[in-house]
Specification:
The chain has about 475 residues and is an alpha/beta fold. It is built from 13 helices and 18 strands. The protein folds into 3 domains: about 60 residues, no CATH class; about 290 residues, Alkaline Phosphatase, subunit A (3-Layer(aba) Sandwich), CATH 3.40.720; about 90 residues, 2-Layer Sandwich (Gyrase A, domain 2).
Length: about 475
């Protein structure tokens, strides 16, 4: 009878433990790394053994179509929301909100007004609502309080912090007693040098080699800390870069009076807010003014850009052809390399590589959209996604397991009111179900033990009291 008791006891104990903790034990981990401005084809330009290593033992997507405009903040927010900029609201690096009467400016670091960010719920909030911890190392938007939340652990943006120090902190977060399951790591280059030198400059070669060395350092540290085979490492970027020239300049002062409008954002896509009564005059003056300049009224912006259904998009949008620069006058800043152009241009496309237990090995895929990353992250982390513009089906062939049929979460319309409370209720309901199930099993176990103890009381009384007492607490 004792052996039967032990078998039942340990079976029920194992069942209880499994229900309560299996979610934590089977938990997948992700480290998402963005090398800002890393164009998709840089890995073919110079030897990049560490990128090659990930491709050999992981997955590689040859063509990643990012979102318009192809700039830093809109694309980084798309990666963590799965939404087009017209839906998540970060429509440019610099923008004006007429409703708030406030300006958002990356150049001046005026980016901390929460209201600019709250048209969407980024993945770190989704992850934390689901009961997990997130670590964010200077990823755009993670040092902003969005929907009253920060990431569990985060470091405010500080470009003076070295890559090595950023990696060390991320690894520390993975090793805590209450570890993270999702980390976001951002690095400024090769974007900065791409702007200064231009991507066609041979001096970019050592910059690309340096990024490969940094990736090698990250791999080495993950291996040293025994995280390499348990963490899913995803390497991507926000956009590419194209060569510009001082001979390809569009000077707005030649066509319109600067006193008649406000100029917002930077080349090559610029937003124009005409002053009262000046709209028709400005549009007529700019339309067909230059053969390498395209001018759109807001309502005429092509649907393929997914870039007209938001109040922060201004009445007139002007866009330069690839390699051309729009300036107000010759006193304006000019860069030898730039991005922001049409997202169909291959020069604007980023890269995508991944390695880890969730991914196949030595697999390449022809194409994906940057919006597809968000549902992929949610699937790997096993958290319910918010509505998004991506497609898990578009990237399921990268995964080591067959993806279950997904409840559709795609959206093609702009997101206006984000109801965070409904999502919290859904997530809490899931975890409350797990909790209550565990409680029921534990109560059953206690009742069973009490019944078994009473039924065996004569046998117990005949034994030495020293072993009878602990038996009740086994």
């Amino acid at each position: 009878m004792d052996s039967k008791f032990c078998r039942v006891f340990f079976t029920l104990s194992a069942l209880t433990f499994s229900i309560t903790f299996s979610h934590q034990q089977d938990e997948q981990k992700i480290l998402l790394v963005s090398f800002d401005g890393f164009r998709w084809d840089y890995i073919y330009r110079v030897p990049t053994p560490h990128f090659d290593y990930i491709m050999e033992y992981g997955v590689h997507v040859k063509k990643v179509t990012n979102v318009f405009v192809t700039t830093t903040y809109p694309n980084h927010y798309t990666l963590v929301t799965g939404l087009y900029p017209e839906s998540h609201g970060i429509i440019a690096n610099d923008m004006y909100d007429s409703t708030l009467n406030e300006t958002f400016s990356l150049e001046d670091m005026k980016i901390y007004d929460s209201e600019f960010w709250e048209d969407a719920i980024p993945i770190w909030i989704t992850n934390q609502i689901a009961g997990h911890n997130t670590g964010a190392m200077m990823w755009p938007g993670t040092d902003v309080k969005i929907h009253e939340e920060f990431p569990t652990y985060y470091m405010p943006y500080n470009e003076s912090v070295s890559f090595e120090d950023r990696v060390a902190k991320v690894i520390e977060w993975f090793k805590l007693k209450k570890p993270i399951n999702l980390a976001l790591l951002y690095w400024e280059d090769p974007d900065e040098m791409g702007h200064n030198l231009g991507p066609d400059n041979p001096l970019m070669d050592p910059v690309i080699s340096d990024i490969d060395s940094k990736l090698g350092y990250l791999i080495k540290e993950l291996m040293k800390e025994k995280l390499w085979n348990t963490v899913n490492l995803i390497i991507t970027s926000d956009h590419g870069m194209t060569q510009c020239s001082g001979e390809k300049i569009i000077e707005l002062d030649q066509y319109v009076n600067p006193n008649d409008y406000f100029l917002i954002d930077h080349s090559p896509v610029r937003a124009i807010l005409p002053k009262k009564g000046k709209f028709d005059m400005i549009y007529a003056a700019l339309n067909n003014a230059h053969p390498n300049l395209t001018v759109y009224k807001k309502e005429d912006i092509p649907e393929r850009f997914h870039y007209k259904h938001h109040h922060r998009i201004q009445p007139i949008l002007i866009m330069a052809d690839k390699g051309w620069t729009i300036i107000q006058n010759r006193s304006s800043t000019f860069m030898l390399g730039n991005h922001g152009y049409d997202n169909e241009f291959s020069d604007m496309h980023p890269l995508f590589l991944a390695h880890g237990p969730a991914f196949k090995k030595n697999i390449s895929k022809d194409s994906m959209n940057s919006t597809d990353l968000y549902p992929l992250l949610c699937h790997i982390l096993d958290i319910p996604p918010m509505p998004h513009n991506g497609s898990l089906a578009n990237v399921e062939e990268l995964l080591s397991e067959i993806v279950p049929i997904e409840i559709p979460h795609s959206r093609t319309t702009p997101q206006n009111d984000v109801n965070l409370s409904i999502y919290k209720v859904q997530s809490y309901a899931y975890f409350m179900g797990v909790f209550l199930g565990s409680v029921i099993v534990i109560v059953f176990l206690l009742v069973f033990l009490k019944h078994l103890t009473h039924s065996q009381m004569p046998t117990i009384q005949e034994r030495n009291a020293e072993i009878a007492q602990p038996l009740l607490w086994s």
